[in-house]
Amino acid sequence: MATAATLPSVLAAQTPARLKLRVLETTDLHVNVVPYDYFRDGPDDTVGLAKTASLIKAAQAEAKNSLLFDNGDFLQGSSLGDYIAYKKGLKPGEIHPMLAAMNTLPYLCGTLGNHEFNYGLDFLDNGLAKAEFPMVCANVERVGGAALVDPWRLFEQSFEDEAGQQQVLKIGVIGFVPPQIMQWDKANLEGKIVASDIVNAAHKHLPELLKAGPDLVIALCHSGIAGGERRGMEENAALHLAALDGIDVILTGHQHLVFPGGKAFDGIAGVDNVKGTLHGKPACQPGFWGSHLGLIDLELEKRGERWQIAAFKVEPKPIYERTPDRKIVPKASAEPAVLAAVKADHEATLVYMREPVGKTASPINSFFALVADDPSVQIVAEAQIAYARGLMAQTQWKDLPILSAAAPFKSGGRAGPAFFTDIPAGPIAIKNVADIYLYPNTVQIVKVTGAQVAEWLERSAGIFNRIDPARTAEQPLINPGFPAFNFDVIDGVTYKIDVTQASRYDGDGKLVAPEARRIVDLAFQGKPIDKAAQFLVVTNNYRASGGGNFPGTKTTVVLEAPDLNRDVIVRFILSKGTIEPKADGNWSLAPLPPGVEATFVTSPAAAGKLPEGLKAEALGDGGEGFAKYRLRG
């Protein structure tokens, strides 16, 4: 009888303990708290931590055990963030509204994204001081070796296993940021911090973390997923990081994509885009601006003294869905506590954004900015050239011709069919200027040769797929993986782009087709450009520091101006009172052969707004809320 009585307990002792743990992730929030579009000045059900928070609340209610993490890029990116950085300021002891919102949620830990550094280290330090959860980042340290934040942390957490018993697990968390911050924010960071290769930093700090005896190691990797051979200093290094022993779960971000499921991740060796794994390890990337909540359900099993992942499921959960007839259907409500945390700053941002700065006599939109010269880029060019003339007048470069490089930041793409500039004729406010120039870049001026101007434009022309002149079937014109902010238009020269030719540069800016030339009829003042002639190009700190890997931009900076490109546009409008930006047609696509059908998508709101001279016709529904157009030869 005694033996029989103890049999169940003996069997229980032989059965491994099992524990279910739900890992939740936000990433790339970019100060999108309220579901509101400050540019359109209206509600927006596709963004906002307040919406994501309701998914967090529901996900935690469904699971006995859960942990919440943030994967970086939270301090910059919306008009609310700009208001704090450039109008209100952030003094020591004050709380940033993004942190106020995040503090209403049970974050265990977070990491730094590249945009955390946009406003300098003092701003970052003031912001982090009021976070009620720690930050980790292993590949950034202050000059001299002191930590900016801890490289990793170990958390002891009590969880309930499937038998109802309490289990204490040690959760190791390590963080990473793209080392390119040293280029992108050189003015803020040079001489102050050092950023190292992500994988090398992991090799350095993982042994320390593993020595502390974690049961589970989670990498907060503010870096995207890309294939190919590892060369070091990758911007998107999550896949290489996942190959390291000791890391169990990868939370990724930075690319503003959704993993698993995003088409960009199909066919990459080591990536399972259905199960959501990198080298067999569970991984997630939940979009941007609060569009998704990353969810990884782990089933842990205790084998001996160690817990191991026995099963898992990865699911990015969206806060909305788009119906076939292009309507947005919310799948989440806004959490009142999150809204309340930013109410005063949100209302102050509305006042700030609505302040008038002048008038525009003509509408300004970017509906066709990727296929034709465009007024939303033209106004940037005019403002930048006027600004640069004043700066250069008393310098040794005063006699050099001034060109302007600018890109159509809002032109659809991943952000959807509402992501276009659309300003009606009439009063123009700060919100409209921020709509034209989306990022808080600062002005920089580079000195280049005519040959480098040509290469700059060849790199920019990589946004186009090659159109086969022998095919009569439909061919998509735009490469959706090429970010529009790398489609620089250079004003002050004239040129055509022949999309029937191969792209000279690949998506990373590497020369892959030395014989290819898409830029044709490149001229300055009506004559073929002199390859040896020198020019000044007004651009921004991102491009001048190597962002986008454009030939000739990185080592030729002649002026690092203190002003934001956006503020330069505001001052230009103030000085004019009334502007009338019209595309001057300095560039165009070379005509296509007869019978070739090249198509592109834009907003349905583009109907009836085709630019003069652009030969295109509407084809109807383009999918995912877009409208499709066809270029005509």
Automatic annotation (TrEMBL):
All residue ranges annotated as the 5'-Nucleotidase C-terminal domain in the record: 413-553
Signal peptide bounds: none
Main subcellular location of this protein, as a coarse class: other
Domain Calcineurin-like phosphoesterase: residue ranges: 21-256
Hydrolase listed as a keyword: yes
UniProt cofactor(s): a divalent metal cation
Localisation per UniProt entry: Cell envelope
One Gene Ontology MF term: 2',3'-cyclic-nucleotide 2'-phosphodiesterase activity
Catalytic activity: a nucleoside 2',3'-cyclic phosphate + H2O = a nucleoside 3'-phosphate + H(+); a ribonucleoside 3'-phosphate + H2O = a ribonucleoside + phosphate
GO BP term, example: nucleotide catabolic process
GO cellular component annotations of the record: outer membrane-bounded periplasmic space
Enzyme class at the top of the EC tree: hydrolase
Keywords attached to this entry: Hydrolase, Metal-binding, Multifunctional enzyme, Nucleotide-binding, Signal
Alphabetized InterPro entries for the sequence: 5'-Nucleotdase_C, 5'-Nucleotdase_C_sf, 5'-Nucleotdase_CS, 5_nucleotidase/apyrase, Calcineurin-like_PHP, CpdB_N, Metallo-depent_PP-like
EC number(s) reported in the record: 3.1.3.6, 3.1.4.16
Protein family per UniProt: Belongs to the 5'-nucleotidase family.
UniProt-recorded name of the protein: 2', 3'-cyclic nucleotide 2'-phosphodiesterase
Protein source organism: Bosea vaviloviae
Lineage: Bacteria, Pseudomonadati, Pseudomonadota, Alphaproteobacteria, Hyphomicrobiales
Gene: cpdB
